[in-house]
Amino acid sequence: MAEKQGLNGAYYGPAIPPPRHYHRPGRGSSCCGCCCLVTFLLKVIFTVLALVGLFLLVVWLIFRPINKVKFHVTDVALTEFNHTNNMLRYNLTFNVNIRNPNKKIGIYYDRIEAKAFYEGQRFDYQSLTPFYQGHKNTTVLNVVFNGQQPVTLQGQELTQFNSEKASGLYSITLELSLRVRFKLGKVKTTRFKPKIECDDLKIPLIGLSAAGSSGKCDIKF
């Protein structure tokens, strides 16, 4: 190794080599990958929280006591309700008012299944036409059950039927199984599956009458 001589012949020793920089391959890319993964997970979490928050807001706006969607059976016509030899023959029509009192929320009724029950037994089923209900709107559903179905009534059930037949006033339950979406501005929620139960219905045979003590129906999720 050549020795370095300075001015005036002074000797400064051997030349100092430049510092060497060592690089560990793969460490930088690994850190970047971890950071990207954490960022992605945080974005997913925030997105899920935002969607959940929007869902809770819409449900609260729809079903709070002030602006609750209301279902009400207004009219019922029962022209036949006869049970012989474990066969029920019936002719029954319901008018159901659906009131959406919300100012900014519309409702998509994607599926409407109407079911009629007597003494806990379903005796008919109808699928109604889907529709969209705008804000501050009242829609009337017309549900018709007409036909005959095997229905077995024994013991207390048969006694109850004979008692109601004598009085001419029958206890019939209407149930609506729905699949709905809510629209708030341009945002549409996921589908919900509420069940509407109208079980306070006392229906007289023949003629048109107000239903039950109130005709109001309960919403269950």
From TrEMBL:
Primary location group: membrane
Record GO cellular component, one term: plasma membrane
Keyword list, A-Z: Membrane, Transmembrane, Transmembrane helix
GO BP annotations, alphabetical order: defense response to other organism
Domain Late embryogenesis abundant protein LEA-2 subgroup per the UniProt entry, residue ranges: 96-194
Transmembrane segments: 40-63
Membrane topology: Single-pass membrane protein
UniProt key word Glycoprotein: no
Compartments it resides in: Membrane
Residues spanning the signal sequence: none
Pfam families: LEA_2 (PF03168)
Protein name, as recorded: Late embryogenesis abundant protein LEA-2 subgroup domain-containing protein
